Structures are given as structure tokens and as C-alpha cells.
Amino acid sequence: MTVLGADEPALPAGAPTTQPATGTATNTPGAGEPALPTGAPSTGEPPLPSGIEQPKGPTTGQAPGAVRKPQPAGTNWLQAMGLSGFLDFRAGIRTQHDPHEKQASLGETRAQLDFQKTWNKVTFKVVADFLEDPVPDHQEVDLYRGRGWIDLRQANAAFGLTSWLDVKAGRQILTWGTGDLLFINDMFPKDWQAFFIGRDVEYLKAPSDAVKMSFYSDLANLDVVYTPRFNADRYITGERISYYNSSLGRLAGRDAEARVDRPDECFQDDEWAARLYKNVQGYELAAYGYWGFWKSPGGFDPATARATFPRLSVYGASVRGQVGAGIGNLEAGYYDSRDDRNGDDPFINNSQFRFLAGYERDLPMIARDLTVGVQYYVELMMQHDQYVQSVRALHAGMPTADFARQVLTFRVTKLLMDQNLRLSLFAYYSPTDADAYLRPNVNYKIDDHWSAEVGGNVFVGQVPHTFFGQFRDNSNVYAALRYSF
Amino acid sequence: MKPINTINLTAALLLISAATQAALAADEPSAMDVVRHANRVAYYQGKDGRADVKMTITDDQGRTRNREMTILRWDQPDPNAAKAGATAQDADKADEYCGDQKFYVYFHRPADVNRMAFLVWKHLDKEDDRWLYLPGLDLVKRISSADKRTSFVGSNFFYEDVSGRHINDDTHELTKTTDTYYVLKSTPKDPKSVEFGYYLSWIHKTTFVVVMQEYYDKDGQKFRAYKALGMKQIDGYWTVTKSEMADLRTKSNTVLEYDNVKYNVGFPEDVFTERYLRRAPQSYLK
Fold first, then answer.
1. Do B88 and A51 touch (CB under 8 A)?
2. Do the chains contact at A322 and B242, CB–CB below 8 Å?
3. Do B232 and A63 touch (CB under 8 A)?
4. Are B146 and A364 inside 8 Å of each other by CB?
């Protein structure tokens, strides 16, 4: 008889009973003891020694239906079909008056459908957003720039061509690099407008229409991305966010939306991006290359009065790994502005050198689930003197950018209520530009489907012509409700 | 008159008593032996393993949240293990090696974490390496692992409960042995690094499965309790199939159910790299 003491736990269902030498154990518990649960192996049978294969079919100790997959209620048919998605209701309003824009910064109903299925070892993925957005005036569908009632986020096929080569072709979201909301070697398109008006941070990354080839070896891994037709950033045009228009010498918005000349010849205006990377003892090392164009307008053609995207190559490297109790990262990149190597064309961005150092860690000594991160970022303009001379030659009083633009960022995140409430703040501050951009956010998971969010985008700047300062009339607050399925 | 005989008799009795003590002691394992064996059964069975995990989190008002994920585990093989052609005995010995491990967790539910993947390289001699992949952003985020005793995906289980607390982080004492259990008391070597004062473990003598654990705070109050609710033998390995962790202060609990558990699947080590964070290994996740 297996006698359990008064303070001893009951054996779990299915446990073998302890066998005294005589082998006369029974399942009858003593007085005051919990009954052994059903499903325990029949008496007199010692447990099988490890390493021995279980025969197929029900055997000692196995409950019937042993290989049952979990059956969640309700949405199982959606999962089986490879579908998931969400319904997102989002509204935002400016906190001050912007003479060039509407007072509402955001007001949309979005339905995202995400479909993923693997057939014959090829994984097909389609992610489409259906959008009802009354704020902008244009509503024609433009899948390339993400306008209109449908925004196709992803439509791609991914497969392993050989054991050392993976391919992903089609519309896809691509990210690499080590910065936190700061980008040096990530030359994939970004949607700055979505980022500034309070859409979910997922929308900072705009889709690429590209082919990604990933080569794997013991020596190192190589990613190569070919984009046949230039994918520009979804840059600020003035349509929803006012910006500094250097031709007019003032802030402008819907009254002077940027007109651009974008390279759009297939195969002629193409982009190549590559990353060579390796994990050495927990340190992630990478080298990067990009051959294409400035992603946001980096030039101006005075003859046509249109913004342009001059040619650009970027060469960089990064390292990320454990530093003390946290994660540290370093990244650097050289931006070779190929159409203005001398730096004396005032209408084309000069070459730059960019550097970033970051550190992030938990602070368990202060509180549970508290994470803090800091970054230092600097942009050095090459041929700065030539730049200043050329600008002054055009326009004596025109403001010029500094040789070194420095930015500090600070991120703090705290989780509360069993990690269902997330408080976060991300702040950019530039001591050289005397401007800042703050992104406070509160997100609460109401249950497994519903979540609510409240946040803001605060732009502060001493002068209107610096990177963040120019957006100072666009500060806004927003709220959102999302149902995920 | 017969002092020498008395001395001889006493000496003989002492010798017999000592021999019996030694014989009894040889039957009883040391605390460290029990802990090592239980640790192996809990975290290291087979060369690798996989399981579908369903987590039900219930708060003090009875509201529930569900998490569903698939966990893949790979164990660092013993560097001193016998080469190819090892016998079954050698294979068994190799299974006793408990070193570094790699875990890949792929989330299915709830919908907002669907297709997120979490990768951990567990190290015994230094901090774990952790990465989180966010599919909507194609972002491989590196996460600091300084705080191991923080909730895993909002449940009552900590990261350390999922990947395994290092057995040398506590001093273990075998407080009693009953017919069914070894009862251990474990006290942390670095009390400032943990929230508990000590914990008690009931380890099943036959299978070395940890059946129950009770955590006591620094004032000696019980505040957290783990229970194994169901177990079965899979591929010859005794496996906990249902367990519960309760927080007695907040009156919340999490129930874990393991399904589709397999051992010695034969994953290549490179499944546990960035390559498969960005492109989930569908064949192993089914």
C-alpha cells in the first residue's frame, strides 16, 4: 500500500505507484489520504526504463487519445485555414492649430487580413489592409505608395531552394540593422507619415517589392536583396504633416505639397542591398552594402522645381551582444552621395558618415518588467565647408545644417497587471538641432481579442528648419481600439 | 577481570553499527544526486524534444486568458561522449550530461502574438542569449536576460521555470524521505537575486518528477505553489503533461497542458538560429 503522509501531495494522474519489494502494492489509499488519480498504471508494473521505444497504440500509463492536438474554442477554423487579422479603429487630433493642415490628424477604420499557407514546401503569404480613411482628400488606389482603400502590405512566396539557400520573392517587409527607431544600414522603405500620425509602429516599415536571397554556410551568412524598381520611403509630402519647404523658406503643408521626380524605370532604377553576418560567441557581427538612391527626397531640380532622389551607396558594419547585464550595439555607415561627391551642389545631399551606439537593459532592482534603453547617434556631413559656401552663394540668409547632427534617444517600458498593461515612452532629443520628438504610449490588453491604446506624438523645436523642429505644428494625440482574430 | 573482552565486544558492536549506518546511507541518495536527477527529468530528457503547450491564465476574478505555443528544445551533446558506434549504455550516459540548451518558442495564440518566435540559448556559465522575432516588422530584437524571474508571456511561470533554474544557484538539503517522495529544501546562494526565501520540493522517488514545489518568502510565508497534475510516459521518458503554478497572494494561477510531446526528433542545431526566426521551421512545428 502506498501510504502518503498528511502533508504529502497526491501523485499526479498517470504516475506509477511506488513498489515495495514484495510487489503487492494496490491503489487503495490509507485513511485521510487522497485517492491515487485514475489513469495510473496498473499495479505491479514498474515504469519502462528510458530509451525503450513505446509500442504503438495504448500502453500502460498512456491515457486514451494521447496524441490529441489542443482544440481552442471558436477560432480554430480560421487558424486551420491560415487566416488571422484584426479590426483597428483609430482617431487622432492635433494639439495645436496648424494653418496648413486639417485639425484631425488621423481617423480610420482598418481591417487587416493575414493569410499564410505552406504548399509543397513553398510558403505563400498575403497581408492586406482594407482602409476607410476620410482624412486625406485623395482616395484613388495606389498599391505602390499605399494609398486608397487597400494597402497591400505583403504578397510573397518563400521557399528553400537548397539546404543553404532560401528565397523570398514578392512584396515583403524587410528589416535589418541594430538601431532602435534609428536607421543607418536599414535602407528599406519607411513610412514616416504613418509613424508621425499615430498608426501602429508596424506601419513605420513600408513594403518592398523585391527578391531576397539568403545564403547560409558555417563561415558566414549572406542576404542579398534585389529591388527591380526603386522603393522610396513614404516620405512627408505636406498632405498630412506640414514640413519645412526650403524653396519657400517656411513651413508648408497642403498649400505646397512636395512634387517629386522619382526614379521608376524597372531594372534601370533598381536597388541592391546586402548583409554579410555571423554570430561569434553570442556577438552578432554584420557588414552591409546598399546601391540605390536616397530613400526620401535628397535633392532638388531647380529647372523643374521638383524634389529628386539622387543616387546613393551605403557601406556599413555593426556589432551587437551582451554587455554586462544588458545588450549593447554599435553601428556605423558611410553614405556615398554619388551625384554630389564634391559636396558643392547645394541641391543634392552631401555624403555622410553615420554612427550609433546603444545600450538596453532590464532594471529588476528598481521594478519588475522595467526596461530602459539609450542611444547616441551622430551624422557627420562630408565636405561641409563646400556645402555652406554653395548654399550661401544661392541665398545669403539661408539656414545651413551643422557639420555634426547629434541625437540622443531614450526608451523606457514598464509592464503592469500581469503584463497586460504596457506603458512606454520613446524620446529623440537633438542637442545640436535643439529639437525633440516624444512618443508616449499606453496599451492595455482587455482580453485575448480586444486591446485599447492611447498615445501621442510631440514635436518640439527651437527653429522650424531642423529635422524634428519642422514638424512642431503636427503634435497630436490619438486613441485606438483593436479586435484581433 | 575481562576488560579486553569488553573492549573487543564494544569495538565489534561499534563496527557493526557503523557498517549498518554505511549500508543504510548507501541506499539513500544525497540531496545533490536527487536534484541532478530531477533536473535531468524536468529539462534534459532525450537529445532534444518538442511539445505543444496550452497555457490558461486565470485571474482572481475567474477571467481567463489563453496562450498557445510550440516549444522546441535542443541539448548540447556531451563533449566527452563516445563517438559513433556507441552502445546503448553509452547513449544512456550521454543523456546524463546536462549542459547548455537551445529553445525555440513559436506562438500561435492569442492573435496579437501569432507567428512571433522567441529563441533562447541557455548557458550555464554566463547570461542566456535571447531574441524575439516580430513578423509584422521583420524585426529580430535582442532581449536582455538579466531578469529571469519575470513572468513568461504574462503567466504565473517565470522564464526560469520554463528554461530551468541552475541547480548550483541554491543549496539543497534532503529534509526527509517518505515511501513516495524525496522532500528537499532549497535555499538561494544569492538571496538578493530572488524574491523567495526558500522553496520545498516533493520529488517522486520512482520517476524523479517534481510533483510539488512550495515557495516561501523571506518572512517564511508560503506565497507560490507548483503542482504536477498529470503525467505519462512518452518514448520511455516520464513527462509531466499537466501542471499548475499558483500565486497565492494575487490568487491567480496558470495551468499548462503539454500535447504532442516527442523526444529525439533529431533537429539540426541550426534550427535555433536567426534563419528560422525569420522563416519558421514548419515541418517541426506541426
1. yes
2. no
3. yes
4. yes
Interatomic CA distance for residues B17 and B263, integer angstroms: 46
- Contacts with A, B 34-93, CB within 8 Å: 45, 52, 54, 57, 59, 63, 65-66, 68, 88, 91-92
Shortest distance between the Cα of A30 and any Cα of chain B, in A, equals 13
For A206, residues 6+ apart whose C-beta sits below 8 A from its C-beta are A146, A188, A189, A190, A191, A231, A233, A234
| Yes or no, beta carbons of B92 and A447 under 8 Å apart | no
Question: Phi and psi (nearest 5°) for B169?
Answer: -80, -15
Inter-chain residue contact A51 with B91, CB threshold 8 Å: yes
Evaluate whether residue A64 is within a structural domain.
no
**For residue B23, is it within any domain?**
no
Any domain includes A50: no
In a shared domain, residues A375 and A328? yes
What's the total number of domains in chain B?
1
Distance from CA of A165 to the nearest CA of B (A): 10
Buried b (16+ CB within 10 A) or exposed e, A326-357: bbbbebbbbbbbebbeebebbbbbbbbbbbbb
Phi, psi dihedrals of residue A285, rounded to the nearest 5° = -105, 145
Q: What residues pair up with A87 in beta bridges, in sequence order?
A: A111, A483
Question: Three-class SS string for B181-203?
Answer: EEEEEEEECCHHHCCCCEEEEEE
> Which residues of A are less than 8 Å from B238 in CB distance?
47
A454 in contact with B, Cβ within 8 Å: no
Contact B109 A448 (CB under 8 A): yes
pLDDT digits (tens, 9 = 90+) for A154-202: 999 999 999 999 999 999 999 999 999 999 999 999 999 999 999 999 9
Is the CB of B270 inside 8 Å of chain A's CB atoms? yes
**CA dihedral for B4, B6, B9, B15, sign (positive or negative):** negative
In chain A, the number of structural domains is 2
> Is the residue at B9 inside a domain?
no
Nearest by CB to residue B65, choosing from A325, A327, A447, is: A447
Instruction: Per-residue pLDDT tens, chain B, 286 aa: give them.
Output: 556 677 777 777 777 766 666 555 556 789 999 999 999 999 999 999 999 999 999 999 999 999 999 999 999 988 876 555 555 555 555 567 889 999 999 999 999 899 999 999 999 988 899 999 999 999 999 998 888 899 999 999 999 999 999 999 999 999 999 999 999 999 999 998 899 999 999 999 999 999 999 999 999 999 999 999 999 999 999 999 999 999 999 999 999 999 999 999 999 999 999 999 999 998 888 7
Q: Is residue A190 within 8 Å of residue A205, measured between CB atoms? A: yes
Residue B195 lies in a domain: yes
Task: Tell me: do A27 and A95 sit in the same domain.
Answer: no
Residue-number span of the structural domain to which A417 is assigned: 82-484
* Partner-chain residue, chosen from B111, B178, B259, that has the shortest CB–CB distance to A70: B259
- ipTM for the assembly: 0.86
pTM of the model: 0.87
At residue A176, the 3 state secondary structure works out as coil
Inter-chain touch B209–A282, beta carbons under 8 Å? no
The reply to whether A23 touches chain B by the CB within 8 Å rule is: no
